[in-house]
Amino acid sequence: MNENELMGSMKxxxxxxxxxxxxxxxxxxxxxxxxxxxxxxxxxxxxLQVAAVSLTNPIFILLMAFANMFxxxxxAVASMAMGEKNEKRVKNTSAFVTYASLIVxxxxxxxxxxx
Length: 115
Fold this sequence. Notes:
The protein has 115 residues and is mostly helical. The chain has one domain. The chain has helices at 6-9, 12-42, 47-83, 87-114. The longest helix has 37 residues, at 47-83. The N and C termini lie far apart (52 Å). 1% of the residues are buried. The model has no long low-confidence stretch (mean pLDDT 87).
């Protein structure tokens, strides 16, 4: 089976599941990283530090979700535009993903600094 014809040759549910696996693995790695981080901070014996790490984990996961959304969505749109030989759309997509990621990062930073 040709990877380029994945959606045309497989059931939609199987094709979507196959394409979602990298995102799921990325999320699992992030969760394991956060658990390890909490474990090592817990070795200090200071409950306030553990609480701080535990409170920031959901924020970190939300930020990673935005990163996955822009990265995977942008690469899918750019790939389709490359297949269509539409260089203008590729450049626009790349610029949008770059600036949107930058804006979201700055907004997160401003919100978190103001807390």
